[in-house]
Design goal:
Distance between the termini: 33 Å
Structural class: alpha+beta
Order of helices and strands: EHHEEEHEHEHEHHHEEEEHEHE
Number of helices: 10
């Protein structure tokens, strides 16, 4: 729309009243169009988060009326997390997104000298892939896999997997705080050269990995589940970890799985994951917890990992482009 008069502003008290409509339009479509697992914040809670600077919101005004917005934050992790770009209706999407991204790049210019930008292109946002590439973003394909607690077929597949490795020098136990330092070593070793380090450079250093793991086990990234976090021991020494937490609501998550390099290639990860999922499933069946599923993500080109998860009972739900903008 060549005649449209576009301008962008950071969301502020002058816009709160007239911004309500476009935000609630997003809320209504968040699950179906943007693959949100939980409902977004109610409008007043969203405004409160903006005022407390937990999140920042750029509003696109078309002839002085809000018709699109972009939300991002750098308060939760060491990255700048671009959460969502939403446009009201389907008119002139390319230009609207471009205007919002230009303002985002302007607002984050100083931070981007030290922080990576992460932007998961979930749902309809995957259509933005070719356009966001013009801003320098790069992409990794991620698949989301789910183990549904009420799926008997998945449970049967899980039960068919052996509980422990045939090599009796390996045993599996549950998380204890005394394993923390060794877990930092193993996670750093496994993730420092993985795509995760592109999205979160902390994995590239021991100190950064320590910070990530500290936030996992202390519940900063969701409720930590130590009783369902499995540890692989080789002759009593920890050499593998499968962490579990709750990302929100009734969804359990496996955020980190890593085996020390000298023990890789033996199919050991599946025993750790089986143990964690089995523990969660038993909690559901006993009525202790009411998880509906366990989810995990893997790169779409990591065929061995995808096969492993399928052989444990996980099923692929959807995939999306995970985009990132390297440090300037």
């Amino acid at each position: 729309m060549e005649n449209a008069n576009y301008e962008t502003q950071m969301l502020n008290s002058n816009l709160y009243k007239i911004f309500t409509g476009v935000y609630n339009d997003f809320r209504a479509s968040a699950r179906n169009d943007y693959m949100f697992e939980l409902d977004p914040l109610e409008y007043q809670d969203f405004v409160d988060a903006v005022e407390k600077e937990y999140i920042k919101c750029i509003v696109l005004l078309e002839n002085h009326i809000p018709t699109a917005f972009l939300v991002y934050t750098s308060a939760i992790s060491e990255s700048i997390e671009l959460n969502v770009i939403h446009c009201l209706g389907n008119e002139d999407l390319l230009n609207k997104r471009k205007k919002l991204m230009e303002r985002f790049m302007q607002e984050t210019e100083a931070e981007r000298k030290e922080k990576v930008v992460c932007y998961p292109l979930l749902g309809i946002q995957s259509d933005f892939t070719s356009d966001i590439a013009h801003f320098g973003f790069k992409f990794v394909g991620l698949a989301v896999l789910r183990f549904m607690m009420d799926n008997k077929n998945s449970e049967e597949i899980l039960n068919s997997v052996a509980k422990t490795p045939q090599d009796e020098s390996y045993t599996i136990t549950t998380w204890e705080d005394m394993y923390f330092d060794r877990a930092v070593e193993v996670i750093h070793e496994g993730f420092s050269t993985a795509s995760d380090a592109l999205f979160d450079p902390r994995y590239k250093s021991v100190e950064g990995t320590n910070d990530i793991l500290d936030k996992v086990v202390n519940g900063i990234y969701g409720e930590f589940l130590p009783e369902a976090t499995s540890v692989l021991l080789h002759n009593g020494r920890p050499c593998g970890f499968c962490f579990t937490n709750i990302t929100g609501g009734r969804i359990a998550n496996i955020p980190l799985v890593s085996i020390a390099k000298e023990h890789q290639g033996k199919g050991l990860a599946k025993y750790l994951i089986k143990k964690s999922v089995e523990t969660l499933l038993k909690k559901v069946q006993s009525g202790e917890r009411d998880f509906t599923e366990v989810n995990v993500s893997a790169e779409t080109n990591n065929i061995p990992a995808l096969k492993m998860y399928r052989h444990i009972g996980f099923k692929e739900d959807y995939s999306y482009p995970q985009s990132y903008l390297p440090i300037m």
